Amino acid sequence: MTTTDSELTPKTPKLGEEILSVTGLVKHFPIRKGVLQRQVGAVQAVDGLTFNVTRGETLSLVGESGCGKTTTGRLLTRLETPTDGKIVFEGRDISHLGEGRMRPLRRDVQMIFQDPYGSLNPRHTVGKIVGAPFRLQHVKTEHGVKKAVQELLELVGLSPEHYNRYPHEFSGGQRQRIGIARTLALRPKLIVADEPVSALDVSIQAQVVNLLEDLQEEFDLTYVMIAHDLSVVRHVSDRVAVMYLGKIVELADRVDLYEKPMHPYTVALLSAVPVPDTKRKKKQERIRLQGDVPSPINPPPACRFHTRCWKAQDICKSVEPPLVELAPGHQTACHFPENQPTDTPAATADQPKS
Ligand SMILES: Nc1ncnc2c1ncn2[C@@H]1O[C@H](COP(=O)(O)OP(=O)(O)OP(=O)(O)O)[C@@H](O)[C@H]1O
Ligand code: SF4
Ligand SMILES: [Mg+2]
């Protein structure tokens, strides 16, 4: 397929307009065995995600360990190539762009990693680390790379004097700030932040989250924020997508999701979150999910959550519930959703007694 010039010069959407659209995104990692390395199966890490992200918003991806969040982030930033499906950024299909064609886009779409220790080269100075994107992308700066790096350090709350120091001289929170400075160097439009604060002390998590929020406002950034816990993203998300075993099981506005969760998995995740607010009418009992997440190599058929769901019926084991909009902007994939509006067809169908 050839790419036309107009496809190569995308327009930046206005705030609130779609910047990223994902359709049927799949990533299966083949499992190979034997001397011939024959494929004997696949890890179904991401298995059919469809969602969009609008410019300036924060969409959070939440779910337990192994449900495919990082793989999704790596697909969106094209550190991985999808097995199937489509990723469109600013109107341009980037799903299968080669490294050469991706290069200019690497400026626009960046990733912040979970581990502020592992993602910074210990042998490089802060100046070299934060300045690397300028050199890699051959970007000219007005007053030189050093000045640009020092400005970035100030922007993320570090001192320009930290330029010649090494990562080990900093605390975890400061290292994450260095990582954020590096990410911001080329003024990206979309940032995928993979559990940016989960490796940090609880006491400094809020500071880094606040920094990300301030930067979003200042630079009209769009975030896809990854977290395994609904409490971390409660205040920063505009919308939340809950993932389970490679699929989105619920996607809604933050307020709808936290106050009227429809998918039993979301309800269970929320019941584990300490809730200080008084808005929730009755105190919710903690729902303990049985067992671990099943293996994505051989996930349960139909509704993948049925092996752990307290509402599961026979139909859940044989018919996959599609992700459908049950209230405006509120999508859920469940045969027997909770908190559904009373006027939907699903609500009037026979409900199991719980
Ligand atoms: N390169 C790879 N090759 C094979 N399997 C992989 C690869 N990367 C990820 N996986 C598998 O895909 C599944 C999803 O992994 P992923 O890292 O995306 O989950 P996650 O939701 O980010 O989990 P966590 O909360 O632990 O970070 C896991 O079973 C993981 O072992
Ligand atoms: S479809 Fe069935 S098993 Fe799946 S979440 Fe809904 S009630 Fe539970
Ligand atoms: Mg992960």
From TrEMBL:
Q: Which domain of life is it from?
A: Bacteria
Indicate yes or no for the key word Nucleus: no
Biological process (GO) annotations held by this record are: peptide transport; transmembrane transport
Q: Where is this region: Disordered?
A: 332-354
**InterPro entries with a match to the protein in the record:** AAA+_ATPase, ABC_transp_ATP-bind, ABC_transporter-like_ATP-bd, ABC_transporter-like_CS, Oligopep_ABC_C, P-loop_NTPase
Q: Which Gene3D superfamilies match?
A: P-loop containing nucleotide triphosphate hydrolases
Q: Which UniProt keywords apply?
A: ATP-binding, Nucleotide-binding, Transport
Tell me which PANTHER family the record gives: D,D-DIPEPTIDE TRANSPORT ATP-BINDING PROTEIN DDPF-RELATED (PTHR43776:SF7), TRANSPORT ATP-BINDING PROTEIN (PTHR43776)
Q: What is this protein called?
A: Peptide/nickel transport system ATP-binding protein/oligopeptide transport system ATP-binding protein
